[in-house]
Amino acid sequence: MARKTEQTIIVSWIGHTDATKAEAGQEAPGDNGPIRTLTDITPAKRVCLLVSRGLQDKAENVRQWVLRGTKAECELIFTDLADPTSYQEVYDVTERFFDERIKRTDTNFIFNVTPGTPATQGVLIYLSHIRCPGSRTVSVKKREDLKDPENSQINEISLPFRLSPDNWRGEASSTLSDEQRREILEIFSPQTQVNLLLLGETGVGKSHFARQIHEASKVKGEFVSVNCALLGSDTEMAASMLFGHVAGAYTDAKKDREGAFPTAANGTLFLDEIGEIPTSMQASLLTALNDKKITPLGSDKPLSVDNVRIIAATNRNLLEEVRTGRFREDLYYRIAMYRVTLPPLRQTAHENQEHFRKIVESSLQKISEANEMRRDWKLTSEAWDLLYTHDWPGNRRELEHALLLACIVANHHAQDTLEAPLLRKYLEDGGVSARQRSTPSISWGTLLADIRNQSLPSPLETWLNNIKAAIVREAMRRAETNVSQAAKLLGVPYQQLQYYWRKLKNS
Q1: CATH class held by domain 2-165
Q2: pLDDT for 15-49, tens place per residue?
Q3: Share of the chain above pLDDT 70, in %
Q4: Burial tier of 237 (Cβ tally within 10 Å: 0-12, 13-18, 19+)
Q5: 20 to 30 A Cα–Cα from 450, which one of 41, 244, 291, 503?
Q6: How far apart are CA 383 and CA 387, in angstroms?
Q7: How does the average pLDDT of the chain come out, rounded?
Q8: In the chain, where does the domain assigned CATH 3.40.50.10770 lie?
Q9: CATH 1.10.8.60 segments of the chain
């Protein structure tokens, strides 16, 4: 037992609560902040404190504060984490820490996930289970939050699912693979306190994925969808749709109405097209999310909505909207605790044909069931090639509409096979969209000529990565390092390019 104690290393992010407690310097056992509450009662060899940029000037004060309650060594690990709410940035920084510091499998690690943001907490929970199996992951409760004063403030975190080290990937794919989707559903669906923001072009399936998250969370309440674009500029009507109203609240309010928030009690509220929400409603929505309370229009009795899970979606670049003042920054960070970018269908078709085939086959099955066609649809190889190479400006909606029309015609002729000429009739622009026409072309002939004059690229993956990096650098040069403009030139989501560009600069 002594040997294990000697090897114990406690890992934790420094949070604002710890910094505040350290600055006050007033000790009260069990109330010294989440880090000291753990380190005061847990013998350890070393304490590793991860520090974000925003807390670097307070880090040494926290370290000295921790040392007042433990004999362990206390090490500050300064990171380049600038945005603790960005899951991608937090993941990159935390993963780097694991790569550089968590190497000894025989060490008894304790990961304290209480300090910090939902992003730092969620990522640390995930990586501690994946990269350090057998370690302890704990949360620290405030003494006043204990229902029984005799209970321990230190709580082991046990996940409602299993994670295998085989699930971990050091490099994220540019498309959202089946495995990544499963991980999101497994990890974040049960975490109903984490608000999710789904990003992607119109028609990529954001509402479908939101419903999948809701169903995977196994909450008892309803899935309530609100299209924020329909709220309009009438503040009273918008407030009524979201929060409800009582009879007489306004001229046409003849009876009480339950709004979207109360309807979604113990369930999920899906705020579709959140980027279209009227400016006049953004403050009210923020208040509801912060206070977990709403007041129906015309009422003076607030209602608790702390049991409503929020999922938002948009095809807009909300960070750009924040910069221009069209969207509140504080509301953005409230709804975007975890961001998921759903790739456009053309990207999935090019990079993950297996998943694309599943999408097509699932759509065909639904079409058959909904229309009682009772057919096992097959596609010719030419038809598959057509679908793979089409640009899909309308994403999943275009695919579903084209398949539906083709199935109706084929079914009329008692055919079970969908052929390329039939599908082509119902695809927009015959496979050529405005996006394709506006995308700068690459002289593949020149590129191939260069290859012929050299040895074949080996390894191929490295060569392709170099080509990708060169194209991105050129796009950033043309856009004068404006990521938003470069993303438009390349036809890729802003968040995807921002993440890749950050990695490219640091490599």
Answers
A1: alpha beta
A2: 999 999 999 999 888 889 999 999 999 999 999 99
A3: 84
A4: middle
A5: 503
A6: 6
A7: 81
A8: 2-165
A9: 345-437
